[in-house]
Design goal:
The protein is 35% helix and 20% strand. The strands form three sheets. It has a nine-stranded mixed β-sheet, sandwiched between helices. Strands 15-14-13-16-17-18 form a six-stranded parallel β-sheet, with helices on both faces. The chain is globular, with a radius of gyration of 23 Å. It starts with a strand and ends with a helix. The protein binds adenosine-5'-diphosphate (ADP). The site of adenosine-5'-diphosphate (ADP) has 17 residues, from helix 1, strand 13, strand 14 and helix 13.
Length: 480
């Protein structure tokens, strides 16, 4: 049976992106469509959407939300493969420079913004005459949708057969707000209870999703286990343990139409496993762009990341002196916390020949850096899935990563004897273990034949979305 699926997310590539959530919500729907399902996507309409290079057309639909003063309108566009994307317009809430707020912060009216969005989604499908079998919600911004369906919309015949699946892309972002904001959501006081949306005396959008969705997923099998522990459960571990029968881990895929060195239009030269020597031109491109001064065999390491605590930036800071002694170069593309930004800025000022920093969000630069580098560093404290390391594998850029979450599931430790494996991993989040793992990578890099084998192992990995999409379909059906 063909399923009617609505995927809801606050960011969807190429219309809006701050991180991996956008990549997933832009790539999973086309894969579901290829499997024959009626999949549609819905998101807020931000100004950045116009940069997606897609036609965005207004629909003659006004969204009135019972009990809410604010109104919205609806626009339509398309993802690759012809997947319809609906964009909810409310200029007061979404016509802003940033999606969530200045990097590292959230706008003070986030409760209004995402309560409105969630309600508007439910009204939009009715106006579109679309009765979803499954509403696939993603992260805290959509956490109230399952709550609304089981409260305000409980008796609404339109949704009588609709089930919800809630995907956790990062448990660290919970959408917790003071109790006084509850009114804005339109939900009654009776939901402010332990088995409702109350979380340490606050309202929690994420908890709403975890408690009320029919099925829960997260973006890697390892992370689905880790979030059930006190160490990585961010306070939600008890709920997740209770709901473990409904919690699944599905590893994200790689969108081949965006991330493929053979066809990528954003990199200096295209290359693939059979033309690996061409990657050198991408490396030269990086060297020129950042005016690096390297020896022929100096490896270029890179990081393309949000500069947040999660990403283990402090390990890099602690490792600075040791790294300065190595014959290496480091290119960092990232935005985030001021403390980390100024660290990298200063480092590249001190050593402009070897350290390059681009403190911005720049999609195309990300592709060039990944293609031109020899290694990618991801010493994350925790990592729900992590996509950058999967892209790195495809581009023959060897990942050196913490053995945790999705990194654990997507990178296999390289064994120089058997020549099996795709990267280098360290278990304990301490600088000395990170450096040890990096040392291993650097000595392997010196042996060009072995290194080439390692690159090819990574490039041969099949992390297609088709595989993940099939697992989601199995869960959608299970929920029904
Ligand atoms: P997260 O979702 O935790 O930020 P992921 O590795 O899952 O981490 O996904 C990050 C995505 O965002 C990748 O596509 C990565 O290339 C991209 N990215 C992160 N920071 C930047 C940046 N400053 N400029 C361009 N792309 C970036």
């Amino acid at each position: 049976m063909k399923l009617k699926i609505l995927l809801v997310a606050a960011e969807v590539h190429p219309f809006a992106k701050t991180g991996g959530l956008a990549d997933v919500s832009g790539a999973l729907p086309p894969a579901l469509k290829k499997l024959g399902h009626d999949i549609r996507v819905i998101m807020p309409k931000y100004p950045c959407a116009t940069k997606a290079g897609k036609k965005i057309q207004p629909l003659k639909i006004n969204l009135k939300l019972p009990g809410f003063k604010e109104k919205g309108t609806l626009f339509e566009s398309e993802l690759s493969g012809g997947v319809p994307v609906y964009l909810i317009r409310h200029d007061g809430y979404f016509n802003r420079k940033h999606i969530y707020g200045e990097p590292g912060t959230t706008y003070p009216d986030s409760v209004e913004r995402f309560s409105f969005f969630s309600r508007a989604v439910l009204e939009a499908v009715k106006n579109l005459d679309f009765k979803p079998d499954i509403i696939h919600c993603n992260d805290w911004h959509t956490g109230l949708i399952p709550v609304y369906l089981k409260s305000l919309y409980r008796k609404d015949a339109w949704f009588s057969k609709t089930k919800t699946l809630f995907s956790i892309h990062n448990l660290g972002y919970q959408g917790n707000f003071p109790h006084s904001h509850l009114k804005v959501t339109g939900l009654g006081e009776s939901l402010f209870r332990e088995d409702g949306i109350e979380f340490y005396n606050q309202i929690s959008f994420l908890k709403g999703g975890l408690m009320f969705a029919d099925t829960l997923t997260t973006v890697s099998p390892a992370y689905s286990q880790e979030i059930q522990t006190a160490e990585l459960g961010c306070g939600m571990e008890g709920i997740l343990q209770k709901r473990s029968d409904h919690l699944y881990g599905i590893l994200n895929g790689v969108d081949d139409t965006v991330w493929n060195p053979k066809t990528d239009p954003l990199i200096a030269t295209n290359y693939g496993p059979k033309s690996l020597s061409q990657k050198k031109q991408c490396r030269d491109d990086l060297i020129t762009m950042f005016s690096l001064r390297l020896n022929k065999k100096t490896p270029i390491l890179c990081m393309i990341t949000r500069l947040s605590e999660q990403k283990g930036i402090d390990l890099i800071m602690e490792a600075k002196d040791a790294l300065d002694k190595e014959d290496i170069s480091l290119v960092v593309l990232g935005t985030g916390s001021a403390q980390y930004e100024s660290f990298f800025k200063q480092w590249s000022r001190d050593r402009p020949d070897r350290i390059a920093t681009a403190l911005k969000f720049d999609e195309s630069l990300g592709h060039r850096i990944l293609a031109g580098s020899d290694m990618l560093l991801m010493p994350s404290r925790y990592e729900p899935c992590g996509l950058t390391q999967m892209y790195a594998l495809k581009y023959g850029t060897v990942p050196v990563v913490r053995d945790i979450g999705g990194l654990k599931n997507s990178v296999q430790e390289f064994n120089a004897k058997t020549e099996k494996g795709t990267g280098f991993k360290f278990k304990i989040s301490q600088t000395k273990f990170f450096l040890k793992s990096l040392q291993k990578a650097l000595s392997c890099f010196d042996q060009s034949k072995t290194w080439k084998k390692l690159m090819l192992n990574g490039m041969a990995k099949d992390n297609s979305w088709e595989f993940s999409a099939k697992q989601y379909v199995r869960l959608y059906r299970k929920s029904l």
